[in-house]
């Protein structure tokens, strides 16, 4: 008998609402060596100003903030190692990643001794966003910060508050620009969907550069699959959701018909409850059929959004600009995806954290062999490594819909530069952002477990050596193998995989929070929500402010 699990259907999103600073005087001034931006706007105002013509060729986005630029010779003449310029950099990372960042800052300051970077961690992404929002009204925000697209575009977002620069004048500068083709294209795309250079929104300004990036991977119990394959050669690692259905069913049948639940399997592959210590291959003594689901998935928002994408549907849509947007997932593709996944749950193949009484992750059930495949963030993949070498794990791509779109979500922050009255601080900030996202980024990726954000970083000798390491701790090897999946599959431009991120706009984080309820409702809701349209209807009823007008 299935255990009845009650969950709350209501998501309450608490958003910090700040004051508008449209009248803020914190605009950049230019020195005699400044140059104007590529869009033709005056760099003396720090914004693009008002629209000067109805002609598309002369269109100027009235909301974009553009930095003043200056020459390197002038900058280096004004600041020295004895009298350097200081910039402030805010992040939300924990101690381990903060140490890696501080190492990079040390390398940057060695290369640029006339720039001092003061780094402050605000202890979490949410705390960082709140700290920046609170600093806006007093003009005490940092020069550089990391942020998610929702931070850039959300309620009291940095773009809407008119503190975030478009980086195009720096990127296009002949002295200190950067080759945008070197950045992984999928990471750049998410930074070019906020403000546009034309009314048709065909060419976006670049509001940030990618810094720490991860995605999702499938972690599987390699020990279990090797044994299962010895009993049934058709039990292999699934590539598609259709494979998950077929192979999940075969796994359940193998364990059921062989009466393996509640017993130990020894290193010879036989049921043997007398086995102890190293002679135990798989321990199923505490596992019963009712708590075993071959497949599990950590993030319920990512689960839903990825399914919509893989089945070819749309999830959200930005309005005329970042001030508005819509939930548009009430479509045939979403219904088909949810119907398929509901079938997997009904067949006892797919579980989610609440299946085992967990709140956020499936790592504990996975390590207990209550599932043998789980979808995890590549940045936290090591959490799925069992203690005491209980079994070996493997890493693979996430399943995709057969005949659909091979998409995997892109996660992680981007580096942004905020408005200043000092063109030299703006340039110092740019030089730092350029260094951290290019020169140092490959080293940062190796040390932190995130992915390089440039193709040159991915293909560097140091990174290639890293992802081909075969001898290390199980925890480190899990991160290395996840990185190898990213390199060989997700970032391989011939593989057909696309890393996606949906556009950020005011309210996009609210929609995402509600989307996280859809699959739990589909699996464990009452009769009004435990089917595709019912779960969709409930979510849309909570998102009335984001229904697209007909």
Question: What tags apply to this protein structure?
Answer:
550 residues, disordered N terminus, alpha/beta
Explain what you see:
- The protein has 19 helices and 16 strands.
- The chain has 550 residues and is α/β, with parallel strands linked by helices.
- The N terminus is likely disordered.
- α2 runs antiparallel to α13.
Which helices and strands appear, and what pairs or packs with what?
Layout: H1 72-78, E1 85-91, H2 95-111, E2 115-121, H3 125-136, E3 144-147, H4 149-153, H5 168-171, H6 185-189, E4 209-214, E5 216-221, H7 222-231, H8 241-257, E6 264-266, E7 280-283, E8 295-297, H9 300-310, E9 316-318, E10 325-327, H10 332-346, E11 350-351, H11 363-367, E12 373-377, E13 393-396, E14 407-409, E15 411-417, H12 423-437, H13 441-448, H14 455-458, H15 461-467, H16 474-490, E16 498-500, H17 508-515, H18 518-524, H19 532-541
Parallel strand pairs: 1-2, 1-3, 8-11, 8-12, 14-16
Antiparallel strand pairs: 3-15, 4-15, 5-12, 5-13, 6-7, 9-10
Helix pairs in contact: 2-13, 9-10, 9-17, 18-19
Specify the oligomeric state. Answer: single chain
Q: Which blocks of ≥5 consecutive residues have pLDDT under 50?
A: 1-55
Strand order of the largest sheet: 2-1-3-15-4
Helix fraction bin: 25-40%
Q: Can you summarize the main beta sheet?
A: 5 strands, mixed
End-to-end Cα distance? 45 Å
The number of helical segments is: 19
| Beta-strand share of residues | 5-15%
SS content category: alpha/beta
Average pLDDT score? 89
Radius of gyration, CA atoms, in whole angstroms:
25 Å
């Amino acid at each position: 008998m299935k255990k009845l699990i009650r969950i709350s259907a209501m998501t309450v999103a608490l958003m910090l609402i700040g004051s508008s600073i449209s009248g803020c005087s914190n605009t950049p001034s230019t020195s005699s060596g400044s140059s104007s931006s590529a869009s033709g706007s005056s760099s003396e105002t720090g914004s693009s100003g008002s629209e000067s013509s109805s002609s598309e060729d002369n269109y100027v986005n009235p909301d974009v903030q553009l930095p003043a630029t200056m020459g390197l010779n002038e900058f280096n003449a004004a600041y020295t190692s004895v009298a350097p310029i200081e910039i402030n950099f805010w992040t939300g990372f924990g101690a381990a990643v903060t140490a890696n960042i501080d190492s990079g800052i040390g390398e940057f300051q060695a290369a640029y001794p006339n720039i001092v970077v003061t780094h402050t961690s605000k202890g979490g992404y949410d705390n960082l966003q709140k700290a920046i929002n609170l600093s806006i009204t007093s003009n005490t925000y940092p020069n550089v910060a990391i942020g998610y697209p929702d931070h850039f575009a959300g309620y009291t977002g940095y773009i809407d508050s008119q503190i975030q620069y478009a980086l195009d004048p720096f990127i296009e500068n002949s002295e200190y620009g950067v080759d945008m083709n070197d950045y992984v294209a999928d990471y750049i795309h998410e930074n070019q969907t906020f403000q546009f250079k034309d009314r048709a929104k065909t060419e976006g300004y670049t509001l940030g550069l990618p810094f720490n990036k991860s995605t999702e991977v499938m972690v599987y119990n390699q020990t279990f699959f090797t044994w299962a394959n010895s009993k049934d050669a058709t039990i292999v690692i699934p590539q598609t959701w259709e494979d998950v259905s077929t192979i999940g069913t075969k796994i359940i049948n193998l364990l059921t018909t062989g009466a393996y639940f509640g017993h130990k399997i020894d290193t010879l592959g036989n049921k043997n409850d007398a086995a102890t210590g190293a002679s135990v291959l798989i321990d199923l003594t505490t596992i019963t059929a009712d708590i075993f689901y071959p497949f599990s998935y950590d993030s319920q928002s990512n689960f839903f959004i990825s399914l919509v994408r893989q089945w070819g549907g749309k999830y959200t849509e930005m309005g005329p600009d970042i001030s508005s947007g819509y939930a548009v997932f009430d479509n045939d593709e979403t219904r088909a995806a949810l119907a398929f996944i509901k079938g997997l749950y009904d067949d006892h193949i797919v579980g989610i954290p609440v299946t085992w009484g967990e709140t956020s992750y499936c790592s504990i059930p996975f390590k207990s062999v209550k599932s043998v495949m789980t979808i995890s963030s590549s940045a936290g993949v090591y959490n799925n490594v069992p203690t005491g070498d209980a079994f070996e794990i493997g890493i693979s791509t996430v399943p995709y819909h057969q005949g659909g779109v091979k998409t995997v979500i892109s996660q992680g922050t981007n580096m942004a530069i905020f408005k200043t009255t000092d063109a030299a601080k703006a340039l110092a900030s740019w030089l730092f952002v350029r260094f951290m996202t290019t020169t140092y980024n490959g080293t940062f990726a190796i040390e932190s477990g995130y992915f390089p954000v440039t193709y040159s970083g991915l293909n560097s000798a140091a990174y290639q050596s890293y992802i081909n390491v075969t001898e290390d701790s199980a925890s480190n090897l899990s991160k290395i193998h996840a990185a190898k999946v990213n390199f060989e599959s997700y970032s391989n431009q011939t593989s057909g995989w696309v890393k996606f991120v949906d556009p950020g706009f005011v309210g996009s984080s609210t929609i995402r929070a509600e989307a996280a309820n859809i699959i739990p409702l589909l699996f464990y809701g009452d009769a009004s929500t435990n089917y595709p349209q019912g779960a969709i209807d409930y979510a849309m009823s909570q998102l009335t402010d984001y229904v697209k007008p007909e």
